[in-house]
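W.,

You were right to be curious about this one. When I first looked at the sequence I had no strong expectations either way, so I just let the prediction run and decided to look at it fresh. Below is the sequence, 416 residues in total, followed by the output.
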Amino acid sequence: MTSETSRTFAFTPLRLPVRFVGGSEALLGLLPRLASGWASREVSEPEEEGPLVVTLENGVFRMTAPWLDEPVEERDPFRAAAHLAVDLLESYLDENPELLAVHGGCAVLGDKAILFPGAARAGKSTLTAALGAAGFPVLGDDVLALSPGEFYRAMSLGMHQRLRLPLPDSASDELRAYVAEHSRAADEKYAYLGLPGNSGPAFGRSTPLGAVVLLERADGQAATLTPLLPGDGVQHLMMQHLSPALSQADALPHLIAALENTPCYRLCYDDLAEAVARLKAVLVDGEDVEALAPATEEAGEDHPRLDDADRVFEIGRRFVRAPGIEHHELDGEAFLTQPDSGAVYRLNPISSALWKLAENPMSVDLCTALLADAFPDVDDRRILADVEKLFSEMSAAGLVEPVERERADRFDAPAG
């Protein structure tokens, strides 16, 4: 049977309280094993009802909230408490739409937060734990917030580190001892770490964002840290942002602002200890990063070429920018967003040049001629093929529109 008893608790970071029905407030005793900084107190007469409700009926914990597609149900109290921790975090993000939540790990090296965006099986949680074992404070290993200001700061949301078990073979004895010492809870899949003092995640702890590091694990790969374009960081974080109130298009200006003066790197590695040492050497001790090899064309590479019979568009076909498309730039790179659909597109240098040319109706052939002048060493048939392909892709995406002949004629300059 369902008990009708209902108790309401306010949580330190939240404006709105959470209602617990049927004795489900028993989960609050498990919450400190999963998160830090989420202190709660019971309130007898809340001024306003919160969106999150937790019930206990016939041994099943049930959570309902507007951001859940359907209620979450769980018999195991520990797993139910883990869901509660996530929903408390969602409540906070729902109340604070100015924050940009991202999926990733984050540790403090020197006096700057280093963000490792999430990627499947890239090892962000294990690497973050290895950094913690090496003495670097950890802000989180799954989700954190970027708070705006003169400089963006990485802010911990208090969720304890969660490591997939068993640890990888490359885990050092030091890391294994660290996990064993600080494990606060575990099930068959994960260990949850609780770190002392200022060394671990605690809600509200923040540090200026210092770098974004994309992770790439490969067997036998020596640890290398190479610079990337800021656009690479934006593109990767675009896929990892978790803010419930922001579409990708809405998140883009925030990401561009956050990374405007933030270096981006790619860390390729296999051994965790080597990865930690390389990060420390570059980001703390100031060693140089590995230089990126300049892009070169393979000898004899078969580039696409067009004869007149292979043309995608008839001669003279013109395009112009579609209305309503928003343009953003970061370090010379361009991003376009469609406000209606929320879609975001990152332009390469040629498509960016075409977008700029298409401010007024421009023909495929004139764009080809202009680019051929800019790149005299490139076969003009190859440039034509690239221009046709890019206009075709941008047209299909709704970024540019074909111009009817009558309209195009009004933009024609008189023959001289």
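Here's what jumped out at me. The longest strand covers residues 206-217. And, maybe more interesting for your project: The chain has a mean pLDDT of 85.

Coffee later to discuss?

I.
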